[in-house]
Amino acid sequence: MASNTTRSILTGKTYFIRTFGCQMNLHDSERVAGLLDSYGCFAAADPAGADIVIFMTCCVREAADQRLYGQCSSCKSLPTPPSGKRVVAVGGCIAQRDGERLVSHVDNVDVIFGTQAIAHVADLIADAFEDGGRHVDTEEGAAPAATTLPWHREQPFHAWVPIMTGCNNFCTYCIVPYVRGREKSRPFESVVDEVAGLLRCGVREVTLLGQNVNSYGRDAYGAPRFAELLRAVGETGIERIRFTSSHPKDLLPETIDAMAEVPAVMPHLQLAVQSGSTRVLKLMNRRYTREDYLGLVDRIRERIPDIALTTDIIVGFPGETEEDFEQTLSLAERVGYAQAFTFIYSRREGTPAARIEDPTPREVIQDRFDRLVKVIEQTAHDFNQHDLGTTVPVLVEGSSKKDSRVLQGKSPKNQTVHAPIPAGMDIESLVGRIVDVDVDTARTWYLSGTVVGDPR
């Protein structure tokens, strides 16, 4: 459809986007919102007030499918919007994986667009409004990259910056390589220029995104250049740099050095272990051992002693024994994670692990999961005690959901920090600024204290 026709159809319409899954999906949602803005659409506060409802999906766990079906079905009971018609669209990984098959699962979906078809979203939605049909685009590599599209950032002081897409690792439990494709790195200069431009627009913190950022550049330049990229991004003057995800097998010494030496790189690393058992790690095709991982942790802490290490752990991978699980528990205690995203294994059709039969009773797996959660709660609590009595620079994100008189933000270690809003100030004037907080309370999942000095 011609852009002028799309604009005439979409101008004045409202949209609502609900995002599930990883940070890459959050970035994609912000690009979809920016694209719709550019065609004259306006964001709505909820689905009931939207002419266009978009679900950006994740298919890492089975529950995501059921959640999507429920969310789509709930749109049937919404009141008719002012335009007289509502278009429901599904994007992201489930859309890429299932394509037209989604139509048989959810009968009120009008538009289905894959992970590489974001640039076509406005045209697809306009077509659905015009002809009332269903429109699907899951073709790979045919559209401009999402990074070239307009942007509607959720937070003006923070930006997601994809440095690569896709994954070449093929962990046996993971569907991502099948829905995001092979690794494809952005040009080095493009990433650096984007961060420099974001800095000029007032952004203070960027998060560099990739399914495995440590392998950035291997496909385009013949060798990884992530350490070099961290240094170059730091030289732009951006105040805070974060990144995710980081595969242990590709975390090179030069990257650890860059993390230690570039002041803007925050002392926080998400380093997914998945299991503490070498036997299970081999079944997962993770390509490192328990000993490899612990040695890596030691090298990181030698260079960055106060770093916050967080992780992902899967419980109940097919064939996991009690001995395997005990090794996961002991590894978590040994590392002392500041936080961990813990999951019960979810079988994903199309992955090698889906073919492995596992007789382990569900109640045994649930008991292991609960035991792991208790260990992580303890290590997180212990980690936060190190900041008790210190002064922490906090990037303010907004007010606490529980108390509007309390600000909430993130420390360099990515800890959530609370503090009463100082007298004479309001949250609107503090969002996006950095305040120093004297920490007097350290709980499992947050720090709290008192703002000292002036915001900056």
Automatic annotation (TrEMBL):
Record-level Gene Ontology MF annotations: 4 iron, 4 sulfur cluster binding; metal ion binding; tRNA-2-methylthio-N(6)-dimethylallyladenosine(37) synthase activity
Reactions accelerated catalytically: N(6)-dimethylallyladenosine(37) in tRNA + (sulfur carrier)-SH + AH2 + 2 S-adenosyl-L-methionine = 2-methylsulfanyl-N(6)-dimethylallyladenosine(37) in tRNA + (sulfur carrier)-H + 5'-deoxyadenosine + L-methionine + A + S-adenosyl-L-homocysteine + 2 H(+)
Main subcellular location: cytoplasm
Broad class of enzyme this protein falls into: transferase
Binding-site list for [4Fe-4S] cluster 2: C167, C171, C174
Annotated ranges, domain TRAM: 385-453
Binding positions for [4Fe-4S] cluster 1 per the UniProt entry: C22, C58, C93
Cofactors (names): [4Fe-4S] cluster
Subunit structure: Monomer.
Physiological role: Catalyzes the methylthiolation of N6-(dimethylallyl)adenosine (i(6)A), leading to the formation of 2-methylthio-N6-(dimethylallyl)adenosine (ms(2)i(6)A) at position 37 in tRNAs that read codons beginning with uridine.
Family note: Belongs to the methylthiotransferase family. MiaB subfamily.
NCBIfam families listed in its UniProt record: miaB-methiolase (TIGR01574), MiaB/RimO family radical SAM methylthiotransferase (TIGR00089)
Protein name according to UniProt: tRNA-2-methylthio-N(6)-dimethylallyladenosine synthase
